[in-house]
């Protein structure tokens, strides 16, 4: 359905509305914000307040064709999404290497392991071997709870899932027993470093 | 031009062809290999031999339009290259966070500072403040010499370049005086960790 302004002009989404929605979403406890958006805001806050230097890596893209028009920027006209061989987030905090993957689940009591890839599990095993801190951050959207769970548990669940009849998901109970609930605040939104402080230092 | 397999599926670069190209390049003493290619091979070697976990980050791309054709992969049809706000390489080595940028210069005695961006210099300043190891790797292609230089010197040159009449490049002499020549070998090609061992541990 096309909507029209009183002046007869068709309504078009300019993105401005979206930002004001985000703003109002914040006021109402940021309903509708994705975990990724919340973590990006959180990481920016950590950088601005000089607490840590942690970034989300760019989305890996296989570039097939690029146009180089005269007098304007190179334009990628054919590209495909690639599967990440590492995790999405990494950086440095209090001299330590930090590495994590973040996922949401709509399931009430578990997150399917298909949210992660073998390469990512292997990557996090390596990180631990080399003295880095590796974990996953999982948001259970139904209850609006966000947990931090050390990568060793992901690795264990992954190994068990490969056995015949092995469970193909991580139960919420494991997050409650071995993980840590991350406080959600106005700023920083998902204060995972406060958990990292308690768990790893 | 899109190529098709006999089954009608479009051909996509899987990287296999590229690797075999790299392989043959190796056989000829890696003539024409860029610093980036050499570092990718080096980092793969470090991972395979379980010495370090260091990756090049994906190229940052601003995705504008994606097609979702039925029964095949999502295709990005409009995207643009973005300027990186961080450095290209990071990871963990012997429990330490490692972060660096790599550049080539065809100039015999200097590398212009315009090869780096303000955001990158600020990023490396932050890395040092938080206890990470930050440096640049620069290849002087004329002499085929590759140097490692701590990020503090990049930062100093950058600050001086902003003064009126300040030099807009880093002289090779600074690499020779304060930096470290990286041994080039068959494998690993650019053995920068052997320098990191000496300088930072």
TrEMBL record, chains A, B:
Similarity annotation: Belongs to the RecU family.
A GO cellular-component term linked to this record: cytoplasm
Cofactors that this protein relies on: Mg(2+)
Stated role: Endonuclease that resolves Holliday junction intermediates in genetic recombination. Cleaves mobile four-strand junctions by introducing symmetrical nicks in paired strands. Promotes annealing of linear ssDNA with homologous dsDNA. Required for DNA repair, homologous recombination and chromosome segregation.
This protein's record includes keyword Magnesium: yes
Main location: cytoplasm
Entry binding sites for Mg(2+): 86, 88, 101, 120
Protein name: Holliday junction resolvase RecU
EC number of this enzyme: 3.1.21.10
HAMAP family, per the entry: RecU
Gene3D superfamilies recorded: 3.40.1350.10
Subcellular location: Cytoplasm
């Amino acid at each position: 359905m096309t909507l029209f302004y009183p002046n007869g002009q068709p309504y078009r989404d300019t993105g401005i509305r979206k930002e004001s929605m985000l703003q109002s979403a914040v006021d109402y406890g940021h309903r509708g914000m994705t975990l990724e958006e919340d973590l990006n805001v959180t990481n920016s806050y950590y950088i601005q307040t000089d607490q840590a230097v942690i970034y989300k890596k760019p989305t890996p893209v296989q570039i097939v064709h690029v146009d180089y028009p005269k007098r304007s920027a190179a334009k990628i006209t054919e590209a495909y999404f690639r599967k990440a061989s590492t995790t999405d987030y990494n950086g440095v905090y209090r001299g330590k290497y930090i590495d994590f993957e973040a996922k949401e689940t709509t399931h009430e009591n578990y997150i399917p392991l298909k949210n992660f890839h073998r390469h990512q599990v292997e990557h996090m095993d390596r990180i631990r071997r080399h003295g880095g801190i590796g974990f996953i951050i999982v948001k259970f959207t139904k209850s609006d709870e966000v947990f931090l769970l050390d990568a060793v548990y992901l690795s264990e669940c992954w190994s068990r899932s490969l056995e015949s009849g092995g469970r193909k998901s991580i139960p919420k109970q494991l997050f409650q027993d071995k993980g840590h609930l991350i406080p959600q605040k106005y700023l920083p939104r998902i204060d995972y470093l406060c958990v990292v402080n308690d768990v790893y230092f």
